[in-house]
Design a protein that fits this description.
By secondary structure, the chain is an alpha/beta fold. The strands form three sheets. An eight-stranded mixed beta sheet has the order 14-15-13-16-17-12-18-19. It has a seven-stranded parallel beta sheet with strand order 3-4-2-5-10-1-11. Mean pLDDT is 90; it is low at 145-153.
């Protein structure tokens, strides 16, 4: 079918859904977005192309859809119609669990009931969200007694304090009981109380310790049972983290043969940086001995001759890590002691990513040793998999051995990947981009007097766009990236650079305005303090006084957003007893319970104000009286202690560019738009947004920030309460 015909069919499907249900309201902006989605997905070439033939057509749309457009319907209906017509699949990636649940539990079932062609959908989670039943049987006391010998002893667990071992044994026994009785389905997210990562990790279903179909409990594996649900699904919902971590694997549909939707796409650059960063603990190395013992023992059983080298490699690795730690203490130990030792990690970043000469050779040695050790582990793993194929009666024993190796090998992989990134040097030309490199020091148990200092090494790319372009977009044929905030100060340029789509000929951008009448529905008030926001102590004192006066006037629901915990704590400390009764503070209650209490208080006719920080500035949907006022304490500039941001700003200055105007202002504009977007959620909402940062109206960059906000009527007010028009 020609692309134009497919696009027309997809748009017809969208129109059908809108007409068939009163729950979906027809909006011009929504249809415009649906049309763009249909055109994009019908134009791209999917799948393998003939060798020597034309280059495949790529099509990527970047769509900013304002609050209230109804973007889920605008991309779901046409995308699914195109996928069915082209016999392919749709993969929808989100950044938050809330949107995943909305899609799987609400939007997609509603569409399935209305579209004429049936389709199936499913939610894909990372393997580590599910329990490994084989591991749980070992830790939960339900394993075959015949397996219980020294060969399977867990050296790491044995080294833990007795009370920790006892608590975890009880935890695993309860998990095993609930799993066998059907009370629990093996999904970590469905536990009543989310477990700590240290407790969950030993029983998590990780790829490095999974033997797949060779596992003796493969037929009852929770992860693979969930995977079966996706086999026939035309729509798969994932998250950005899983999407990045699955690159190059066969876990998800191939990116050149599916239709990809990236909702909440403004998160993609940050997720990419996190994924391609690396870190390692240089101080706590007992796991190396455990891994060496297991590798030597299991390698001997598998007659892998190379395993004889394992004790030497492990000893040299441990010695090398001790040597790097000693060198770092020589360089930074005194500064660490003079800093806020005992108050949390102290960071030392390498200017321009330049590695001290003294560290070069030791890190190269660590990298080479880790690569050699990993090569031997891979040989042992291949031998184990081969033995499982040839000796199915031994599958249980061999799978446990495989799992024991796999539980520790990721730590060795961290050493290899971190040293590799630390050793990466910028090219000699001036415009080359360095890697951010830093070390953190923290006192261990017993404080500084104990002499134990935990030293970690970190490295990260500094340009998400370059990383995404090389590792992600080069694989993608058809994609729609959407969010309510993709423009910055009214332009797409910043996001396109950050996401790696700038100057890509396959990319087109579309801005779809919100259907809300912001001028009639809301006011944006800039409160001008006497104190300069740069002078934190004086500003915070004056800001809090003005803020609390406004909070006292709240009649129903409100949200107050702070830029730091310290700032929020100061405001809480200044609350009167009467005001404290109406304020709910982030962190004092679980998020779900806090929001439930807020809703109940407002619905009962009372006033309720949520005090929160960055994570409450996005994703909250509090329509109507639940949020009639949003208070923004200060412009949400990125925190000044981000080492990747510092390294990037340093590089920009070195090549004659201004990091403040090029990086800080655009990023702040997107964040401010998100925060202000909590105010108007429906066509009938009426709300005020107050920002207590005079820089919005007193600086040129502040006026740029205002241009990126929805078209509220803007007002100015002094901290004393005198209102004026701009």
């Amino acid at each position: 079918m020609p692309p134009d015909d497919i696009a027309r069919l997809a748009l017809d499907a969208f129109d059908l859904v809108v007409d068939a249900s009163g729950a979906f309201r027809d909006r011009p902006g929504q249809r415009l977005m649906a049309e763009k989605v249909a055109q994009t997905f019908s134009a791209a070439t999917l799948g393998k192309t003939e060798e020597g033939g034309d280059e495949p057509t790529r099509a990527i749309a970047v769509i900013q859809a304002g609050t209230g457009v109804g973007k889920s319907l605008a991309y779901c209906a046409p995308a699914i119609a195109v996928a069915l017509a082209r016999n392919t699949r749709v993969m929808i990636s989100t950044a938050t669990v809330a949107l995943q649940e909305q899609l799987v539990n609400k939007d997609l079932p509603a569409l399935a009931a209305l579209l004429p062609q049936p389709f199936r959908f499913g939610l894909a989670k990372g393997r580590g969200r599910y329990v490994c039943k084989l591991k749980l049987s070992r830790h939960g006391g339900t394993a075959d007694p015949a397996d219980d010998d020294d060969l399977f002893a867990d050296e790491l667990a044995a080294a833990a304090p007795a009370h920790v071992v006892a608590a975890r044994s009880t935890f695993y026994a309860l998990l095993a009981r609930d799993l066998s009785s059907g009370v629990w389905d093996g999904d970590r997210d469905n536990l009543a109380q989310p477990p700590e990562s240290d407790a969950w990790s030993p029983v998590a279903a990780e790829a490095s310790s999974c033997t797949g179909k060779h596992c003796p409990v493969f037929s009852q594996c929770t992860y693979y049972e969930k995977r079966k649900e996706l086999v026939g699904a035309q729509v798969i919902v994932v998250n950005h983290d899983l999407l990045m971590s699955s690159l190059g694997s066969r876990m998800l549909p191939e990116l050149d043969n599916c239709l990809l939707v990236l909702d909440e796409g403004h998160h993609l650059p940050a997720v990419a940086l996190d994924h391609f960063a690396a870190s390692m603990d240089l101080s706590r190395t007992t796991w190396l001995e455990s891994l060496a013992n297991r590798a030597r023992r299991i390698g001997g059983l598998m007659t892998v001759t190379e395993s004889a080298d394992v004790p030497r490699l492990a000893a040299q690795l441990r010695q090398g890590m001790v040597e790097v730690s000693r060198l770092l203490m020589d360089m930074h130990g005194q500064a660490f002691k003079e800093a806020r030792a005992g108050q949390g990690p102290v960071r030392f970043r390498l200017p321009r990513g330049a590695l001290p000469e003294a560290l070069d050779e030791p890190l190269r040695l660590l990298n080479a040793l880790a690569e050699s050790f990993l090569a031997i582990l891979n040989t042992i793993a291949r031998a184990l998999r081969s033995a499982m194929r040839d000796q199915p009666d031994e599958a249980r024993r061999l799978s446990i051995l495989y799992a024991q190796l796999g539980m520790l090998s990721p730590r060795l992989e961290k050493v290899q990947s971190t040293t590799e990134l630390l050793l990466k040097a910028a090219e000699s030309d001036q415009d080359s981009v360095p890697v951010a490199k830093w070390f953190t020091f923290e006192t261990g148990e017993g404080g500084l007097d104990s002499g134990l200092v935990i030293i970690k090494a970190h490295a990260s790319p500094i340009l998400p766009g370059s990383t995404l372009r090389l590792n992600f977009w080069s694989r993608v044929r058809a994609a729609v990236v959407t969010s309510a905030t993709l423009t910055s100060c009214g332009e797409f340029d910043f996001y396109l650079r950050e996401s790696g789509l700038h100057d890509d000929p396959a990319v087109s951008a579309l801005e779809v305005a919100s259907p809300f009448d912001y001028a009639a529905q809301g006011r944006f008030v800039t409160v001008q303090t006497h104190a300069d926001p740069k002078h934190a102590e004086a500003f915070t004192a004056e800001m809090v006084q003005a803020l609390l006066g406004d909070v006292a006037l709240v009649e129903h629901g409100a949200l107050c957003l702070f830029t730091s915990r310290k700032q929020m704590d100061q405001a809480v400390a200044m609350l009167t007893e009467a005001l404290r009764a109406r304020v709910l503070v982030q962190g004092e209650l679980p998020r779900t319970l806090l929001l439930r209490r807020h809703r109940a208080q407002v619905e009962a006719g009372g006033a309720s104000v949520i005090f929160g920080m960055q994570s409450f500035g996005e994703g909250l949907d509090l329509p109507g009286q639940l949020c009639e006022t949003v208070f923004i304490a200060k412009l949400p500039f990125a925190p000044p202690d981000d080492p990747v941001g510092e390294a990037r700003a340093e590089w920009l200055r070195s090549v004659g560019r201004d990091p403040f105007s090029e990086l800080v202002v655009p990023a702040t504009a997107m964040r401010l738009a998100q925060w202000a977007g909590r105010a108007i959620r429906t066509e009938t909402d009426r709300a005020f947004v107050y920002c207590y940062d005079r820089r919005l109206v007193n600086t040129s960059y502040g006026r740029r920030l205002l241009q990126g906000l929805p078209p509220f009527v803007q007002q100015r007010r002094s901290a004393a309460g005198v209102v004026s028009q701009p």
